[in-house]
Amino acid sequence: MMLSHNLYTIKQEEHLIGGAVLFQDKKNKEIMYVGRIFIDPNEYKKGFGLESMKYIEKMFPKITKWRLETPVWNIRTNSFYKKLGYLEMYRDKESVYYQKEV
């Protein structure tokens, strides 16, 4: 993933605190998928996830739609994405699929 430029690190100064995996849609270059975003659990509730997502979205000004999925059971991540302005597109038994238009 690193070689294909899909993996990004999240740091505070030089301390690695997380990362993100992003994929651009192959057919529509205005759509980006957040495959994963992860923060070290020791760094939860400090605003790093929120600031990282905002920064990631600004890194790609030509992207008009951001999409991701998260497990239905994960209340923390579902709440997190809604806080960032992502809207639920649909869900199945296992996942909730979100989209944000910018």
Short description:
The protein is α+β, with helices and mostly antiparallel strands and 102 residues long.
Could you walk me through the main structural features you see in this protein, from its secondary elements to its overall organization?
With about 100 residues, the chain is of the alpha+beta class. It is built from two helices and six strands. It has one domain: Gcn5-related N-acetyltransferase (GNAT) (Aminopeptidase). About 20% of the residues lie in helices and about 45% in strands. Strands 1-2-3-4-6-5 form a six-stranded mixed β-sheet, with helices on one face.
State the name of the first-level CATH class.
Alpha Beta
Largest sheet: spatial strand order: 1-2-3-4-6-5
Mean pLDDT: 93
Which stretches of 5+ consecutive residues score pLDDT under 50?
none
Structural class: alpha+beta
